[in-house]
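Problem 12. The chain below contains 93 residues. Write out its predicted structure in token notation.
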Amino acid sequence: MSADPDVSLSSYDEDQGSKLIRKVREAPFVPIGMAGFAAIVAYGLYKLKSRGNTKMSVHLIHMRVAAQGFVVGAMTIGLGYSMYREYWAKPKP
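Solution.
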């Protein structure tokens, strides 16, 4: 068993920052979904004290649905973007 000379170990040589940047370039909508989720959760916590006479459980369910909806939407748009990049925008040989 000989080692293949074409195999690159560059993925092991990269640091955390360059790996994060590479992953963001590969799937740009994942960090957007995560940021949107965090923003909705922060907004929900901010509005928690001024929710009026709404029950706590109803408020939390609304925030959960909004956050999940944003993440699912970002993932769907990201999937469409990657399909476009892979199948339609790919240069033909």
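Discussion. DSSP finds four helices and no strands in the chain. Students who got a different answer should revisit the alignment rule from Section 12.3.
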